[in-house]
Amino acid sequence: MRGLQVLYPVGIDRNGLPVEIFAERKYRVQMRKTPREEFINLCKHALDDLEAYMVGLMKTLGISGDYQSKYRTDSEEYRKLTQWSFMELWKKGLIYLANRPNNYCVDCNTTIADAEIEYEELPTYLVTNRFRVNESKQELLVATTRPELLAACQMVMVNPKDTRYRKLVGKTAVVPIYGKEVPIKAHKSVDPKFGSGVLMVCSYGDYNDVLMFREFKLKEVVAIDLDGKLTAATGKYAGVAVKDARSQIIQDLQEMGVAAKVEQIQHRTPLCERSRTPIEIIPMEEYYLKQLDFKPALKRMARKIEFHPDMHRQILLDWINVLTTDYPISRRRYYSTEIPVWYCSKCNTPHLPKPGKYYRPWRDEAPFKKCKNCGNTKFVGETRTFDTWMDSSLSPLFITKYLGNRRFFSLTYPATIRVQGKEIVRTWLYYTMLKCYQLTGRAPFKEAWIGGLGQDSQGRAMRKSLGNYVDPEPVLARSGADAFRFWGASEASLGYDFRFSEERIAGAGKFLTKLWNTCRFISSFPQPEKAELTWTDKWMLNELGKLIEECTKAYENYDVFTVSNKVREFLWNVFASNYLEMAKGRAYGDSATKGEQEAAWYTLHEVAKSLLLLLAPISPYITDYAWRKLYGARSIHLERLPKPERFDITEKVSQSILEFNAQVWKTKKDKGLALKDSISLRIPANLTHFEKDLVRMHHLTK
Ligand SMILES: [Zn+2]
């Protein structure tokens, strides 16, 4: 409605963990116990059903994307682009393989990125164990929330300023149960007030352990395996799941008299965003994409991109600031884009194929004859896939045809705007900026619109596990898309969270009924091409002009909250209660000249047209229907937003009209008079131009 051409393809993100979990539940299968090909087909099936449902909802909602050029992130074309990007970044030296401690979810059986971790205060046990100082045999109390990792303890730490332990630094401590000797060292990260002020460092209870192992070059002990069970390194607890092993060892420590104290505490625990399982830090080899080197460039870009609202830029900046590791991009899963690598079966050298095709190394033959390192002719295909954000981060390059059509790309990249929720700033927004910058040297979009979260009626995030999730289909069936959209637009100012409320959706429906009735009333009058306007009409059109200016400005800022609320306020409080009452008699020809009557008709239609146009982007169905009925067969969505017309009416006069009307109504009410009863009240001096309409409206007598 601004006369611009818009590229808005509908994209369906169909990769990754959520898809697999959905398929596992839907078909009651387990990925690891299902042949890969078969599991992939089940995922596709599940996705097709889900996609049909989602696209149906999008159409019902009136989302005006281009469904003809709908794309899927699991299509061959899209995955080709993802694999190409990997090869390209590999060439640039931005991807490397490394064995390092990794966030791992034992339920999802995969590495996860920092961005997918949520923290929650959960109850756990703080166990204070009696260690022994090897040299002096004195007792040393060490508190930990991870007693099951005693076997992986490689150091004991105290704060260098803690006078209680100063003499012990440099000596060794004996780990209970396992009897091994570990050094006692000082480090400023130890909080003397936590537990006994002595900390055990093991691989890996938390992220601080990772830092300490690195700093003190300690030898890693792998105590937890990829299924979340303790390893042989823990002795009798081998094969036991972490949580059970913890209870068992606490009991053992108590029985052995090692545990001096066991207390329940609330502990800030990292959880997998999807399965809500506590994260383990497990050393493993993964592919990494460099991101730390790009922090300055990304921050510069973040400051240049125009954010709507501006405050949400900070979520991105905060995230960039806290990044301390590169991005692990490989996942041990099935339904995602395959990592296009084969390894020499002899020397293990990774080989990347030529770009331009979609590769599935887990089942395709290696496209090489000989190992470039040792000449061996046998290769083993990579079985891992990419993290799903490796795909979705490329959507701006896919839709602008980066690989296929340079001319189209140069016309459309960078995209104008990214529209998304604030809960995926750390992932979708961030990774898109990172990868598109690494590949093109430019930002992927000029502006970002970051919406708030839809919450339940009590203000909680909607979660399957809480059962507070609202299925949109029946809600839409009850309210219709227009009321639902108007509610969505008018509920939260740009970027703020909002609560689901069916009552308030019904309220939005009432407003649309009012709009409908207003248009129907106006449609009973003919529509003159032009008219000799009275002052009342000029006042109304001037107010309308102000509304159009405000709404146009708001739309330019993608702010539908202001538009919906301003239009609602205008229709109820200015137009319906004031102008309509002032001009109704004239419109019916009651003691008015033909010219005055036509001026009322003209103004009524101008208001109706403008309100429909202003609301068309928010409530597309009702406005389109009314527009076609009243103003021609062409869709309202092909029209332009209205142009404001302004007249010489001061703010003061406008205020006086509203105040005078309110005063008359109040006086009549106080005197017990009906609205149609006559009354004697003096019209304010600055409203003499409006006298005729005011007298008729209020039945004023001299
Ligand atoms: Zn080789």
Brief descriptors of the model:
single chain, elongated, 20 helices, binds zinc ion, seven-stranded mixed beta sheet, 702 residues, alpha+beta, four-stranded antiparallel beta sheet
What does this structure look like?
The chain has 702 residues and is α+β, with helices and mostly antiparallel strands. 40% of the residues lie in helices and 18% in strands. It contains 20 helices and 23 strands. The strands form seven sheets. Strands 5, 6, 7, 8, 9, 10 and 11 form a seven-stranded mixed sheet that branches. The longest helix is centred in the C-terminal third of the chain and has 28 residues, at 560-587. It starts with 8 loop residues before the first strand and ends with a helix. The model has no long low-confidence stretch (mean pLDDT 94). Bound molecules: zinc ion. Zinc ion (ZN) binds at residues 344, 346-347, 349, 371, 373-374, 376.
SSE map:
Elements: E1 9-12, H1 17-27, H2 36-60, E2 66-72, H3 76-91, E3 95-105, E4 110-111, E5 117-133, E6 139-144, E7 153-158, E8 172-174, E9 181-186, E10 198-202, H4 207-215, H5 242-255, E11 259-272, E12 280-289, H6 295-304, E13 306-308, H7 313-322, E14 327-328, E15 330-331, E16 342-344, E17 350-351, E18 379-381, E19 385-386, H8 389-392, H9 395-399, H10 406-412, E20 415-421, H11 425-440, E21 445-451, E22 454-455, H12 472-479, H13 481-491, E23 498-499, H14 502-522, H15 535-556, H16 560-587, H17 594-615, H18 620-631, H19 651-670, H20 691-698
Parallel strand pairs: 1-2, 7-9, 13-21, 20-21, 22-23
Antiparallel strand pairs: 3-4, 3-12, 5-6, 5-8, 5-11, 7-10, 8-9, 12-14, 15-19, 16-17, 16-18
Helix pairs in contact: 1-2, 6-7, 7-11, 12-13, 13-14, 13-16, 14-16, 15-16, 15-17, 16-17, 16-20, 17-18
The site of zinc ion has 8 residues, from loops.
